[in-house]
Each structure stands twice: as structure tokens, then as C-alpha cells.
Specification:
about 260 residues; mainly alpha; MetI-like fold
């Protein structure tokens, strides 16, 4: 089977399901005479999207920047914390419950607190919200990977009296790459969700979240759904970017074995 045929085989079923879902959605709204404020039809949303496509792109760029910065910061912090936890049982016992507590904090609590601390006109609060949201999946998956050291490798580094950080760098981290990329795949779309939700709580009115709120407040529900469509596209783009990172790092993982 050629690469083109394989790609078509993988893409065709979800595309057909998506088209069928849109047709069913349109039929339910039209035949059921569903009110616009309850659920606009796909055609109404498409028409609204065409009228605000430029603004959707600008808002998506603002939200995407917030999500990307927060994702990078939270991922780096999660990987670093996992490396520390793998080195010390005491640190593991401290960092694991702290990361779980951070994960349990709802965004609706974090966003107003960070806005009060750093100012609602600063992009810092939203980026911090994203960083806190993505820290947990990256930390948990990376820590799991760092603990799974091949017994042969562990015996070899003990025989060579390799220092702890050298073991982490040359043995643990390469072996943990699949776990790190799994954490990134979970964290990437989550970063977009966190960024959009954080924008509901004031601050700069330049992102998708604030646009959705503004359109819904003005009862422009098809336009609000057009911005929701932009958020969906942004989340898919982040997910695809994480998959690309995973594919790029796959040769490194194979070489480490």
C-alpha cells in the first residue's frame, strides 16, 4: 500500500463522519426549528465565519501566542520537576502532591487571582494559567518515563560509576522521550482550552475567549460559534504540532535503544 493510499484510508473515515455529523446537525436545527440562541445551524455559523474571518484569525493569533508561551513554560517546568523527582525520593514525595494540587485548581479561580497579582492588562496572568494547566500532564508522564530505566542500562551505569545527573541526561531522559511526547500531546490542546477560558475573566480583549463572550452578550450567536470554530481549529493545530514533535523525536528514541 502506497503512502498516498494509506493517508487517504486514514483521513477518509473521519472526514465522512464529520460531513455526516454536519448534515445531521443542519437537519435537526432546520426540521426541529431550533432557536438560534440554543444552537445555530452550520450554514449560519459558516456565513458568520465568512464575515469575521479576519478577526477570527487575529484573535486566534493572540490566543495561540498565550497558549504557546504557557505551554513552553509549563512543559519546561514539568520536565525539570520530573528530573528532580527522579533524582530524589524526598523531592518526589514533595513535588507529586504539589503537582496534583496545582492540577486540581480550577481556572476560574486562578485567572482572577493572577489578574489581581500582575494586572489585567498584562499577558502574564493568562500565560501563567496555561503553564499551571499543562504542568501536571507533562510532569506525570515525564516522571513515569524517567523511572522506567532498562535494567541492563542501570547495571551498566552502576558498573561505570556514572554520576547521577549524567545518568539522567544520557540514560533516563532519552528513554523517557515517548512519555514526554505523550505528555505534550495531552498538554497541547489543553493549553488552548486554558488560554480561551482564562480570557473570559477580563484583561486584554484580543483573544478568542473575549470575542466569544462579547458576541454571546450581544446575542450574535452564529458569530460566537464562528469564534468557537476558530478555537477548535487552533486546538487541532496545537495537537498536530505535538504529533510533529513526537515524530521528529522518534529517531532519537530509536537511537537511544
Amino acid at each position: 500500500m502506497s503512502a498516498g493510499t494509506s493517508l487517504r484510508t486514514r483521513l477518509l473515515p473521519p472526514l465522512l463522519v464529520g460531513v455526516a455529523a454536519l448534515l445531521l446537525w443542519q437537519a435537526v436545527v432546520v426540521l426541529g426549528r431550533v432557536a438560534t440562541f440554543v444552537l445555530p445551524s452550520p450554514l449560519a455559523i459558516a456565513g458568520a465565519f465568512g464575515g469575521v474571518a479576519g478577526d477570527v484569525a487575529r484573535a486566534a493569533a493572540a490566543t495561540g501566542t498565550t497558549a504557546a508561551v504557557g505551554l513552553l513554560a509549563g512543559s519546561v517546568a514539568g520536565i525539570a520537576a520530573a528530573a528532580l523527582a527522579a533524582r530524589s525520593r524526598l523531592l518526589d514525595e514533595v513535588l507529586s502532591p504539589l503537582s496534583a494540587a496545582a492540577n486540581a485548581l480550577p481556572i476560574v479561580v486562578l485567572a482572577p487571582v493572577f489578574n489581581a497579582m500582575f494586572g489585567s492588562t498584562s499577558p502574564v496572568p493568562r500565560r501563567l494559567v496555561v503553564a499551571v494547566a499543562v504542568f501536571f500532564p507533562v510532569f506525570v508522564n515525564t516522571a513515569r518515563g524517567l523511572r522506567r530505566v532498562d535494567p541492563v542500562h542501570a547495571e551498566l551505569v552502576r558498573a561505570l560509576a556514572v554520576s547521577g545527573w549524567a545518568v539522567t541526561r544520557h540514560v533516563r531522559l532519552p528513554g523517557a522521550v515517548p512519555f514526554v511526547t505523550t505528555g505534550l500531546r495531552l498538554a497541547a490542546p489543553l493549553s488552548v482550552i486554558a488560554a480561551v477560558v482564562a480570557e473570559y475573566f477580563g484583561g486584554l480583549q484580543d483573544g478568542l475567549g473575549s470575542r466569544i463572550t462579547s458576541a454571546a452578550s450581544a446575542t450574535a450567536y452564529p458569530r460566537a460559534w464562528a469564534y468557537v470554530l476558530g478555537a477548535v481549529a487552533l486546538g487541532l493545530a496545537f495537537h498536530l504540532a505535538a504529533l510533529l514533535v513526537e515524530r521528529l523525536l522518534a529517531p532519537t528514541t530509536r537511537r537511544s535503544r
